[in-house]
Amino acid sequence: MKQLFDDVSFKCSKLVTKSYSTSFSLAVYMLSPSIRDAIYSIYGFVRFADEIVDSFHGFDKEELINDFEKEYYKSFNMGISLNPILNSFQQTVKQYNISDDLIQAFLKSMKLDLVKSDYDSKAEYDEYIYGSADVVGLMCLKVFVAGKDHKYEELKSEAMRLGSAFQKVNFLRDLKDDTLVLNRNYFPGVDLNSFDEKAKTAIVKEIQEDFDVAYQGILKLPIEAKFGVYTAFVYYKKLLNKLENMPCHEIGTARIRVSNYTKAGLLAKSFVSYKLKLV
């Protein structure tokens, strides 16, 4: 039965999400059940592509990412794939009218990770973040607004800023691994050796500005999506706060995390704010 295979495919995307990110899984669980599977499918697609370029050392990453792209388009055209992650994603793309330019921009940024290690200009940095993060936020926004173009256009800018904020927090948190393990430097003019309080303060300020704009968009989201997105927003704001209060030399030597106990507390506070209609 095709429906059974499709159900298994979406469950695989959910498993990928839960296995790779407990925080994102928690946020997705706070979404309406009617849209959870679609968001799991988006996360599964972008996570597998990211794993190819970040983790599959000793394998031909270029061939793998190119094959992944070809298999996606084959699944889109056929309406099915034996790769359950691609099978669920192509269905979400069609159901919510996710435009191909978003997928192409994402894959372009993933491929850049194979050939580019430094982003020397603001323009390069912005282009990479657009493809690696902003478009993921836009894919999710398509689901949140049920594919309605007018609502999508209304919230597009804020969704991009939220994607940017999340990605920049990740960059700051992963500064050590990006530099020493992957030999990458995303922040223009900043590397592990020159990273100081001045550089950190400037980055934190930039991220906070993204969050401030993004918050206004969260307030306007449909009820099916608002609490889940707000949960992710609060979690990443907490991460940023920890990074802001940590000495810059420690950011370069340790990975910053939010404990499960703290996550539970953040969820409870978020729920109270949501019920009090503060969000």
From TrEMBL:
Domain of life of the source: Bacteria
Presence of the UniProt keyword Transferase in the record: yes
GO molecular function: geranylgeranyl diphosphate synthase activity; squalene synthase [NAD(P)H] activity
Keyword field: Transferase
Gene Ontology terms: biological process: carotenoid biosynthetic process
Protein's UniProt name: Phytoene/squalene synthase family protein
